[in-house]
């Protein structure tokens, strides 16, 4: 869906542009932001990416990441850029609350807000909205925005291709989730032709673990995994002490939930982590089991049907027990 395309004329002249994405950006959030960043810069705009937090170390090689501004570290400069921006891109989120401390700042900014996103239930705040919940990644939508919406067929440089490939690869679990259509593979082929070195990207993202992170994985598999066979469900519950023991930082728990889902017969997997102020949870499912409904109804969150997240202000054990108490409600689809 494209809404507000009459505003596209703004890109005809150089503009001041700020790109924002969700708190604790993942590969798609940062890859789509950096892909768009390089394209806008090549088209003579003045562009900055402003994040509400740091990003995982496995993304700390993406072309252009050294230019990113972390709002809490450079608040005055970032505030000025946001105040002066003609356009604020909102990438990989459709509810402003997902930008954490940036929410009020973006809400009050006077520039136009342009959303490019694939999450369900978009909030109505954007002057331009390029949104498709069936897209595999926001990076896919940034690609079609550049190539189809704006029509810049030759605009994909190797830097753009590398960032967009990384976004699509991470959001599709390396091209294996249901969202990976033939159209996605066509775009991926075009990105490789445009200069994305697929083998290097896989190497950078998946073979960049630290020894401590790998040992943390072993520890979690041995000590924090619980399988609930009567509901085909498995979960990890990870305490603050577990995180501290292995010096775990942003992004180190990425992908952990998939180990619970990889058990034969398991159809719903959860990851519960005791973060500084909240319990953060991630759910993954197969088939029609609605992770997003569970997160929305019970854990102040949302997301996609098969991948969603939320949080809880209860303690870790209470949150996990609350989750277990919900399972009977879904017994039929969990066990069919
Ligand atoms: P993850 O489990 O990797 O943190 O998030 C998976 C998906 O769930 C994200 O792509 C996002 O759509 C959604 N999500 C994660 N956390 C939240 C949250 O706190 N609120 C909402 N609305 N969605 C979330
Ligand atoms: Mn995404």
From TrEMBL:
One Pfam assignment: DHH
UniProt domain DHHA1: residue ranges: 245-333
Phylogenetic classification of the source organism: Bacteria, Pseudomonadati, Bacteroidota, Sphingobacteriia, Sphingobacteriales
Transmembrane regions listed in the UniProt entry: none
Domain (DDH) ranges: 16-168
UniProt xrefs under InterPro entries: DDH_dom (IPR001667), DHH_sf (IPR038763), DHHA1_dom (IPR003156), Oligoribo/pAp-PDE_c-di-AMP_PDE (IPR051319)
Entry's Gene Ontology molecular function annotations: nucleic acid binding
Superkingdom assignment: Bacteria
UniProt protein name: DHH family phosphoesterase
């Amino acid at each position: 869906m494209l809404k507000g395309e009459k505003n596209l004329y703004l890109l005809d002249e150089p503009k001041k542009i700020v790109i924002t994405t969700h708190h604790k950006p993942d590969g798609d959030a940062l890859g789509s932001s950096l892909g768009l960043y390089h394209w806008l810069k090549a088209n003579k705009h003045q562009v900055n990416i402003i994040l509400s937090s740091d990003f995982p170390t496995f993304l700390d090689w993406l072309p252009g990441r050294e230019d990113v501004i972390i709002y809490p570290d450079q608040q005055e400069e970032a505030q000025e850029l946001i105040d002066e921006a003609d356009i604020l891109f909102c990438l990989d989120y459709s509810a402003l609350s997902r930008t954490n401390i940036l929410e009020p700042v973006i809400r009050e900014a006077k520039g136009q807000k342009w959303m490019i996103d694939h999450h369900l239930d978009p909030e109505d705040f954007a002057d331009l909205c390029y949104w498709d919940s069936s897209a595999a990644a926001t990076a896919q939508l940034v690609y079609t925005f550049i190539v189809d919406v704006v029509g810049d067929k030759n605009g994909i440089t190797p830097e753009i291709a590398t960032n967009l490939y990384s976004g699509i690869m991470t959001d599709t679990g390396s091209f294996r989730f249901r969202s990976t259509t033939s159209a996605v593979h066509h775009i991926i082929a075009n990105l490789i032709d445009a200069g994305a070195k697929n083998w290097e990207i896989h190497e950078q993202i998946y073979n960049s673990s630290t020894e401590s992170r790998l040992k943390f994985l072993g520890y979690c598999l041995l000590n924090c995994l619980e399988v609930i066979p009567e509901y085909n469900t498995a979960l990890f519950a990870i305490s603050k002490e577990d995180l501290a023991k292995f010096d775990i930082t942003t992004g180190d728990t990425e992908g952990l939930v998939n180990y619970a889902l990889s058990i034969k017969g398991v159809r719903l997997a959860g990851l519960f982590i005791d973060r500084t102020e909240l319990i953060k949870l991630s759910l993954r499912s197969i088939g029609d089991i609605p992770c997003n409904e569970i997160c929305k109804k019970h854990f102040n969150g949302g997301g996609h049907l098969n991948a969603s997240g939320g949080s809880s202000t209860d303690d870790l054990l209470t949150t996990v027990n609350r989750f277990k108490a919900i399972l009977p409600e879904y017994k039929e689809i969990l066990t069919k």
